[in-house]
Design a protein that fits this description.
This protein is an alpha/beta fold. The chain has 13 helices and 8 strands. The two termini are about 30 Å apart.
């Protein structure tokens, strides 16, 4: 899965002032990523505010990204949830010919045991017609997929090809990297520790900040993969404040503020999410102004 090495971006869903999906802005966002060195795009990840989108809106987002991309970059589709049977039904009903993999989040709210997590992803692996990236994000799901469970899945199912690891725990990530099968990819889901994870043997990142600063962040990851440590860390520290800021009041409020500062899309959010406050917006706007 060489197409998943480097920098992927979890695309936001831009909204107009009336909270409808802003198709034109989404096209601009896609082109901005492609024009500035991003390696692949993730459609309908958690950053896309999936929970507030209707099925018709999800289809609109998918088709808009496919059309705008014009097969220029590999695409990954978010297909996850806490109802295993519902995910399997979706996997059997959708056309995945435009996607290289699915990204599937560990079940949220239910708080399954490690065996429950294993059985959930086993069912998905059996049903999926394309490779699967499992996604561990305990801060959102309420449960942590342990390294032993990840390695077990990686060894047992050839089409579970990677993990997006977003526990924010470098030691946990290193444990997976140490014990994983040779060709299994460990992808950072945490922008702040993406570089150290790459230097420890990870394969890249599925990023949020990369959507606002695609040129700088994708170059940072390339330098890390090339073991050019000093140059990579120079870029890391240039962007570090922005990474803190975009997550300060939750995702995707911060990155939507960055995109508005860049003139690419509006910062509208659907409830229960709300815009960042004026203080944070001003700090984000100043950072963007000084780092365009």
């Amino acid at each position: 899965m060489k197409s998943l090495i480097g920098t992927g971006v979890a695309l936001v869903t831009p909204f107009k002032k009336d909270f409808s999906v802003d198709v034109e802005a989404l096209i601009r966002i896609v082109n901005y990523q492609i024009d500035n060195g991003i390696d692949y795009l993730v459609v309908l990840g958690t950053t896309a505010e999936n929970a507030t989108l209707t099925q018709e809106e999800k289809e609109l987002v998918i088709q808009t990204v496919i059309s705008a991309n014009k097969s220029r970059l590999p695409l990954v589709l978010g297909v996850g949830g806490n109802n295993t049977l519902k995910i399997i039904e979706e996997l059997k009903s959708r056309d995945y010919s435009q996607f290289v993999a699915i990204l599937s989040v560990s079940p949220y709210y239910n708080k399954p045991t490690q065996e429950g997590i294993y059985q959930h992803f086993k069912a998905i692996a059996i049903a999926s017609p394309i490779p699967v990236i499992v996604y561990n994000v305990p801060g959102r799901t309420g449960s942590n997929m342990l390294p032993s469970t990840v390695v077990r899945l990686a060894n047992d199912f050839d089409n579970i090809v990677a993990i997006k690891e977003a526990a924010g725990d470098l030691v946990q990530a290193m444990s997976i990297i140490k014990d994983k099968p040779k060709n299994f990819l460990v992808i950072s889901g945490d922008d702040m520790i993406a570089l150290p994870m790459v230097l420890a043997g990870g394969s890249g990142v599925i990023s949020v900040i990369g959507q606002g600063f695609p040129k700088q962040f994708s170059e940072l990851i390339r330098l890390g993969l090339d073991r050019k440590v000093d140059e990579a860390y120079k870029l890391h520290y240039q962007l570090a404040d922005s990474i803190d800021m975009i997550f300060e009041q939750g995702n995707p409020g911060g990155i939507k503020e960055v995109l508005m500062s860049l003139g690419i899309s509006d910062n509208c959010m659907r409830l229960p999410l709300v815009n960042v406050n004026s203080d944070l917006a001003n700090r984000i706007n100043l950072f963007v102004k000084n780092n365009k």
